[in-house]
What we know:
This protein is mostly helical.
Amino acid sequence: MMNFKKTVLIVGALAVAGPSYANIMVIGEGLGEACFNQAKYGNSDRNALSICDKAIENGMLNKKDIAATYVNRGIVRSSRGDLEGAVEDYNNALRINPTLGEAFANRGTVYIRKEQYTMALDELDRALSLDLEQPAMVYFNRAIVYEHFGDSTKAYNDYKMASELRPTWDSPQIELTRFTVISD
Length: 184
């Protein structure tokens, strides 16, 4: 008969790193790409918001890029502290493209910031069931939620997955150093 070792994970305090956002590339030059860059580089001033507003309002983007631009503007809004506006943008993106994983992922991130962890977990699980450009960020954020719920094993596994998917990203590796794996 096979004897399986039971693994127990012990973890320190809840992850100190904040949740991460997943922006979406808009191809081509113009306001859509400019909005993407504002989100990508963490710009959240009035100019960044204005660029994204103009990209959505000018009518020059196809449906896919409009949905992506709503996600990117949502990131800018969230960075400005406008969490309700960010959720509104993610909802608008999902009305255009109901399978846009990044919209679910970023809505989950907002719910983490609002400490609505059950809603966050639902959104992050949904995001992971869809195509994502940056799944490592979603695994990282879901690990934060699992830690909040006290599920150290799932948190560890998601930090590990985030680290494997994006080995050059330090945040998951830093979080993993807080865990000690004990086997008996």
